[in-house]
C-alpha cells in the first residue's frame, strides 16, 4: 500500500513511507499482558526474553521510532519515498 500511494502521488510532490518497529520496550507491552505469553507472569523475565531476541541485546524504545519519523519528515529525507524503514535493532536480519 505504501508503494502504491507513493507512486500515485509522487508527481504531486508527496512522499509515502512506513516505519516498521521491532520489539519495543514501552508501557504498552506491560498492559498487554505479554508477560503471561513469554514468562508465566514474570515481567522481568519477559523483558529479558524479548531483549535476548534482539541482536543488539536490548529492545528499542519509543524514541527510536520517533527519531525515525522525525528523520523521514525532515528535508534530509526529501528523496525517500515508496519504502519501509525497519527500526528493529536488526531482528529482521537475524531471522531472514
Write up this protein.
With 96 residues, the protein is mainly alpha-helical. The protein has a single domain (2-91), classed as Rossmann fold (3-Layer(aba) Sandwich), CATH 3.40.50.720. Helix content is 48%, strand content 10%. It starts with a helix and ends with a helix.
Count of individual beta strands: 2
The number of helical runs is 6
CATH topology, by name, is Rossmann fold
Please give the largest β-sheet: 2 strands, parallel
**How much helical structure, as a percent, in the residues?**
40-55%
Distance between the termini: 22 Å
CATH H-tier superfamily: NAD(P)-binding Rossmann-like Domain
- Summed over residues and divided by their number, the pLDDT gives a mean of 93
Proportion of strand residues? 5-15%
Cα Rg? 17 Å
Oligomeric state of the chains? single chain
Order of strands across the main sheet: 1-2
The backbone outline, from C-alpha atoms, is elongated
Which parts are unreliable, with pLDDT below 50 for 5 consecutive residues or more? none
Can you identify the CATH class?
Alpha Beta
What is the CATH architecture term? 3-Layer(aba) Sandwich
Structural class: mainly alpha
- Please, how many domains? 1
Order of helices and strands: HEHHHHEH
For this entry, give a set of tags.
Rossmann fold; two-stranded parallel ribbon; mainly alpha; 96 residues
